[in-house]
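Dear colleague,

Following up on yesterday's call, I've attached the two folding results inline so they're easy to grep. Please treat them as preliminary; we haven't cross-checked anything against experimental data yet. The first protein's sequence and structure tokens come first.
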Amino acid sequence: MPDKLFSHLNPILFLQTFVAQSIEVSAMMGRDKGDDRLNHIEQLGLTASDCFETAYRQELAQDGPLDHDKYADMIVEIKNKIGGNFSRASSEPGMVRVVNRRCPFGEAVMQAPELCKMTSSVFGGIAARNFGYAKVILDKRIAVGDGMCEARIYTDPKKAATFEGDEYHREQGVIRGQKASVKAQITRERRSGKVWCGVSPRKPEDTDKPPVVAKSPAMLSALEIIKVVAPTTATVLITGETGVGKEVIARRIHAMSERWNRNFVAVNCGAIPENLVETTLFGHERGAFTGAYEVHHGLFEQAEGGSLFLDEIDSLPLAAQVRLLRVLQGGEFERVGGKQRLSADVRVIAAASTRLDKFIAEGSFRKDLYYRINVVPILLPPLRERREDLLPLVNHILGQLSTKYKKVIKALSEAAMARVTQYDWPGNVRELENVLERSFLFSSGPVMSELLLPQAGGGASASVYQSVDLSLKEAKQQAGEQIEALILKEALTRFCGNVSEVARSLGLTPRAIHQKINLHSIDPNEYRSHARPKVAHMDKGK
């Protein structure tokens, strides 16, 4: 192991900062607030685990997940570089054991044995990040007079089930402990300019930013606005129809900001049940309501130091709008059922449909919240109003599909490209992506001559929803049936009516295929000749 490992870290400053803050928190909270103090320690430990692992990997140019041997080497080296005396002991599959005879905290740990939570959080955070799960058991501790420390780290939940210990999980990129998460960290050090971990992750190049394909004047103007506003802390409101790419723009703003190496959290407000909106955004305390058995960290805590993208913000109920307004104005919030104010160092990027003024007039969206989120407005026009972007978008999407499916890049024929330009694309870029992917999969050869639009022969306003009287549920069901019929016809054509081959290619049983072709009134005998029958574009599923 090179001696220069962590040469850019200052372990003394780190330990002084950590111990001083722990003592400060203890004094502020009093002895009756032990859970809050442990929460603070666990938060700082999880943050340190991320910091130390990054330093270790950068120093050794190590990428990819760790195996158990490399993990054990990492945690021993980390602890020893900040003043411990750890070594590996006998282990077994799914479990690593390490021992120590000198505590990095020195004599301070005897007066504050809860500082051992730091060791648990560092070991558990790194293990959960690489293996998805960890349980840390401290069998012996210098802090309580054992004369040595002995820790077992289990990465197999089945083997750990019978033991008491501190558990850590990786959930959607967030490392969670029993009381804290690595994304819900205390930011006092960052705000005051104290840096106890000198790791500076690589700043992303332009190629790392979410691509935005733009040739039209409207989109080029939007990109110019992004360049100006991204480095600031200003709140941004992105408006436009469904499918125009509002989240792509939000991610680009985050990637071009000073928060690029922090968390980007996206949520569709319209997809959250109304009774769970506030606890989803702001979290809840244990016992806040029936079933609240543990503290829940809301999205504001998960996005701490980064950006929170609130899509379909017009779907928020009025009560949640009031709480959101308070956060944006004061930078503080309380969890549901809590009394402690938590700071929110979060940049909010909101998105809404172009009907937001209508909701304000109806009284379902607060005007004061609108003025608070609409500091910098970015309007994304629908695809039908920026025809200049169609050809570049088609080429970009086909390139992505080629990489995704490991096939040569395909091109549209002149006739297919004409259909692209003639169609109105009510679903915007999202619909274009879906149509191109479907056409890509069912085309043979390097040129895609057919464009599998939702309805054949339609003009600019063609749509699978032919009857305005259809309910949304009926429309979805009809569209699904039509797509299923189209897939069956294409497969029968490809395999000349051989139902067994069709079943194998689609991962179904021949009996299931027979049931489906009967449902759609498809006769496989029509596909058993060598001539390729013409397949209608989702006309009636027949």
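Below is the second protein, in the same order (sequence, then structure):
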Amino acid sequence: MSSFDHRTALTQIPTDPGVYRMLDEAGSLLYVGKAKNLKRRVSSYFGRALNRRLQVMVAQIADIQVTVTRTEGEALLLESDLIKTYRPRFNVLLRDDKSYPFIYLSTQDAFPRLSFYRGPRKGPGRYFGPYPSAWAVRETLQLLQKLFPVRQCRDSFYRSRTRACLQHQIKRCTGPCVGLVRAEDYAIDVEDSIKFLEGRTDEVIAELGQRMEQAASALEFERAATLRDQIATLQRIQQRQYVTAEGGDVDIVAAVEEAGTVCVQVFFIRAGRNLGNKAFFPQVPDDADQAAVLSAFLTQFYVDKEIPPEVLLNAEPDEAEFLTAALSERAGRRVSLKHRLRAERARWVEMAVNNAVLALKTRLSSRAGYARRLEALRDLLGLDDLPRRMECFDISHTRGELTVASCVVFDDQGARKSDYRRFNIEGITPGDDYAAMEQALQRRYRRVLAGEVPLPDLLLIDGGKGQLGAVAAVLDDLGIDGLRLVGVSKGPDRKAGAEQLWLAEGGTPIIAGADSPALHLVQQIRDEAHRFAITGHRQRRDKARKTSTLEEIPGVGPKRRQNLLRAFGGLRGLARAAPDDIARVDGISQALARQIHDALHAERERA
């Protein structure tokens, strides 16, 4: 029990808005919270009946620190940053650090382009969304290609065309790159695309109907048939995506809990259209109620995302008034949080709740299967307890070039992707997987020794007895013990299910059998390490290929590179040129021409 004197601490806390932090005797952060009135909010932890979770937390408090902010919005931002940075164990923790994708229309171009976009929306053009997933954006772009053939090709591809591409041949583009469409006709398709993305589908259908009648009157039956098909497609899409005749932007957020697991379901409604939904499974402390979960979720979810004018909820969140003010300040306009709903909006929330329940049941079923595989692995390896943290390493390269090592992490809940790491391997003999593994392990486990990363219970290595011995030697040199090592090697016929598990203690390998739940878990972890290593190697290889040799030559800046590539039609033509020919390019001296020539020929010899 802490000897913390809360009465003395409360006398030092102001009544301003801000953020409070509760720390234990070791200085570790227990909890972060925000408040419109810091003194009143912190006092509430010591003057009322608390649930079990808060009782446990309060008993550990050794210090309370506060940061005063000017406004509720600043408190919201600061609280979210502190939670993401320190991940206090008594806070609801949301794992969602990805920005959401948009559809981008380059309205500044003579022939605008529609494209997938993720990032800050600061440049010219129009942005539509956000969409809950990349898949939702790509599905919408495919629909738009069929309805209104606005180009979706990259600008570099568009500018280099001398004849129409395949998209034009299959009637997915009108060919503006080679002048096959008039600017005014293309502008009509662009305008129709904008109206569709804004949810003005009825208006588009009405206009298409008028154009169809005009085409039929002019005996342009082929065009009339095309317009008829467009109308039919739009009507089918409208039936599937239409939510409300009122239009408007709304998010629907519903939180449900079962067996200690919480699912928060979010539906994104933009201009009256359902753009899709996404399920979140935040890490929630024991005894956290629905109101606390919703409040914490909204705080962390909207701190770096677009906030719609209305957010519909299946319950009232904690500190609803404060949260409304903070989100309104963040959005720069009024934001309404509503949970007492009727008629149509009540049915929307019910839809979100039903989807949350379904997602939660699916996850619990999956987790039950995962728990059984963990228990089977414990029994197979003879471990005293279930492994709480497992790491697996793998190596990837192409003929020894650009070697990358991966480290993936699994815990008792599954993959912990935020803890995954890659290591670019340098200074070894190309193709020496033992040396690559040694370098990766040393870099990883030095951080373990420094206390930056927890020590795993189980270390899996993609390899056999020899690889396992090398790993054991590295760990011995670092002075790390108490770590169970397992090597995973292919069986004699290299078929999945015939893997051999080698233990550091030596002896014969364990062959679990193709139907073993323990082996299925090992395969899952090993395959994930393999995938992560290959992805990293390919990214490194692609980056190396995209880097021009010219960029590494001193004295050859962007303008000179451009002049050289334009003069010789690309890098290949420049590589064939003699030094005297290179020196004729504007801005290139004879000495620099010789340097360019030698560098390009050295590169060709290495290749």
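For the second protein, one point worth flagging: Residues 343-381 form the longest helix (39 residues).

Best wishes,
A.L.
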